[in-house]
């Protein structure tokens, strides 16, 4: 096997004329203006695609019922500060019913619904 000398991998290739800097690409229409960005790429800042529409979770019911032989659990959360947890089938069903009742009577939720209806 013969030993050949290779230029370092991170360096630009060496030519007999030497290394030259990259030249700017002229505009596609032939004018003297330089091409700033690729075609189809927006050059200005676009509006946020995930803009906030003002909606927030205000009452949350998280139910975990993995299957037979495993204890179900429920967490009821509300923006008013309510945060209840229940484990076991009877307690979970009771908390689900209580969560529905709380959504109907919670002063912060009913105030938000009245404001939305107006």
Topology at a glance:
Layout: E1 59-64, E2 73-78, E3 83-87, H1 89-105, H2 107-117
Antiparallel strand pairs: 1-2, 2-3
Plain-language structure description:
Residues 1-54 are annotated as: Disordered. The model has no long low-confidence stretch (mean pLDDT 75). It is elongated, with a radius of gyration of 33 Å. It contains two helices and three strands. The protein has a three-stranded antiparallel beta sheet with strand order 1-2-3, covered by helices on one side. Strand 2 and strand 3 form a beta hairpin. By secondary structure, it is α+β, with helices and mostly antiparallel strands.
Output the keywords.
three-stranded antiparallel beta sheet, single chain, elongated, 118 residues, 3 strands, alpha+beta, 24% helix, 2 helices
